[in-house]
């Protein structure tokens, strides 16, 4: 998705050397990295479920990631993401085992010369590793088969990994590859992943803006929002749950109950002129009737 954003933004803006230009109030996110460059980050993922006025779930997962530049060329960077030190505030043993499966997992990605995400290079290795680990958990607890299948899907293919399993990586590279003008809002439509039916991506409205320039500290703040087409979201969710009910021999849901369904993602990030993220918070807000699902992911340099 980030590469598509970069292509679209090329219609709005041109590139020039230098990340911050106070003369025309612009900033661009370009990677100025060298082989061996490394930064470590702490990541916090909070999942909240609010039903009416009551918070029925408040779960937080924390972990660290070491990002290292493995290679660079005239038109690309190869970068390693090493995951470690997973923690969670839940007492659920299954959750702890699933988190442990990601310990020391290495995901190798490729970006273009500007730092915009292109692909996961070792997706087969990642897929096989996670499948074996999740199968081991499933064998220990056979009653978790349905849950394990959901996690296995996230790593079932290159497309699934890139669209679903590496959301922290996608968040990190959201803005790379383009030039932005202070207080100018860019709006456009594009296709975004559909986890229910990957072959039918959603139409979504995207907005991007440069909110703050800090030349004295060599950084700037960018914002991003994504709103999924409501009609497509309602129809897809209803179709998926109806098919699930049919396969389980249960009553299908009432479509009217999904009429207020919404899915909005917002991202605010402070980025250094070298292209390294300093701080980023991304919120995913999904609402159906009185139930709100909120996911907050914070990525912060250590």
Features:
disordered N terminus; 14 strands; 302 residues; alpha+beta; three-stranded antiparallel sheet; 43% strand; globular; eleven-stranded antiparallel sheet
Note down, in words, how this protein is organized.
This protein has 302 residues and is of the alpha+beta class. The chain has helices at residues 2-9, 93-100, 123-140, 145-154, 158-165, 167-172, 230-248; strands at residues 20-21, 26-28, 38-51, 54-72, 76-88, 106-112, 117-120, 179-181, 186-192, 202-214, 219-228, 262-272, 277-288, 291-301. It has a single domain (2-9, 25-301), classed as Lipovitellin-phosvitin complex, beta-sheet shell regions (Roll). It has seven helices and 14 strands. The protein has an eleven-stranded antiparallel β-sheet. Helix 3 (123-140) runs antiparallel to helix 4 (145-154). The protein is globular. The two termini are 27 Å apart.
Topology at a glance:
Layout: H1 2-9, E1 20-21, E2 26-28, E3 38-51, E4 54-72, E5 76-88, H2 93-100, E6 106-112, E7 117-120, H3 123-140, H4 145-154, H5 158-165, H6 167-172, E8 179-181, E9 186-192, E10 202-214, E11 219-228, H7 230-248, E12 262-272, E13 277-288, E14 291-301
Antiparallel strand pairs: 1-2, 2-8, 3-4, 3-14, 4-5, 5-6, 6-7, 9-10, 10-11, 11-12, 12-13, 13-14
